[in-house]
Amino acid sequence: MQISLSKNDKKETDVKYASFVKGIIGTDDILTDGVPEIAFVGRSNVGKSSVINSLVNRRNLVKVGKKPGKTTEINFFSINNKEVYFVDLPGYGYAKISPKQKDKIRKLILWYLMYSEAPIFKVVLILDVKVGLTDFDKEMLNVLREHGYPYLLVANKEDKINQKELSEKLRSIKEEAQEAVVFPYSALTRKKSDALFKEILGV
Ligand SMILES: Nc1nc2c(ncn2[C@@H]2O[C@H](COP(=O)(O)OP(=O)(O)OP(=O)(O)O)[C@@H](O)[C@H]2O)c(=O)[nH]1
Ligand SMILES: [Mg+2]
């Protein structure tokens, strides 16, 4: 599967249009309309929605920081009139929701990845660089590896720590995840948004 986002002189990746399509909680026509999907997965509050906004250069395409843990749907955003969908998955593990609700979200994420047959181009697994890998992230990594999905680990919120701490955190994340590539990022500064986009698209 190849994605070629429109190119211009300044940037390799160019998002001209981005819009919300719909939220789903189970099987739906959108999963079989042939548009490749880039899925953003991670614990609640790690910055999934912020990372999506930073990539499409919009502050409010996806609501950020409001009512964490309340998003229980899988939200689809069309990029450049359905060149690709960005898929914002509900955040797992928000402390203030019930165990039952947590389990529901975990099952929805696993269903999407394992059984929905969505044409997933890449899974972006987002971590909070200060927190590192949690049990949920390890479970996700196992699923992604077992299913052979192309994925990328993004260590978000790098602006919150200094260089020394950052390299230590990255080293331990790589070691624990047994992963050579972890992309340090800040959705707040957006400094590396183009580099991240290229890494996700593999260009
Ligand atoms: N300092 C800093 N804060 C960030 C960064 N990315 C996100 N945040 C903040 O972290 C909080 C959560 O961000 P969201 O993007 O809503 O996180 P999410 O993963 O989508 O959360 P859920 O939708 O609840 O799963 C917000 O207050 C953001 O402003 C970052 O790179 N640096
Ligand atoms: Mg969110």
Helix content: 25-40%
Using the CA coordinates, give the radius of gyration: 16 Å
- Which compounds are bound in this model? guanosine-5'-triphosphate, magnesium ion
Overall domain count: 1
Question: What coarse outline follows from CA principal-axis ratios?
Answer: globular
Poorly predicted ranges: none
Work out the strand percent: 15-25%
The CATH topology corresponds to Rossmann fold
CATH class: Alpha Beta
The neighbouring-strand order within the major sheet is: 1-3-4-2-5-6-7
- Main beta sheet strand tally, sense and closure: 7 strands, mixed
CATH architecture: 3-Layer(aba) Sandwich
Give the helices and strands as they follow along the chain. Answer: EEHEEHEHEHEH
Mean pLDDT: 91
In CATH terms, the superfamily is P-loop containing nucleotide triphosphate hydrolases
Treating each run of at least 4 consecutive H or I residues as one helix, how many helices?
Answer: 5
Question: What is the structure about, briefly put?
Answer:
The chain has a single domain (18-201), classed as Rossmann fold (3-Layer(aba) Sandwich).
Can you tell me about this structure?
The chain has one domain: Rossmann fold. It is 30% helix and 21% strand. It has a 7-stranded mixed beta sheet, with helices on both faces. It contains 5 helices and 7 strands. The mean pLDDT is 91. The protein has helices at 48-56, 99-114, 135-146, 163-177, 193-201, and strands at 18-24, 37-42, 74-79, 84-88, 120-128, 151-156, 182-184. The chain is of the alpha/beta class. The relative contact order is 0.18. Guanosine-5'-triphosphate is lined by residues 42, 44-50, 64-65, 68-69, 71, 91, 156-157, 159-160, 186-188.
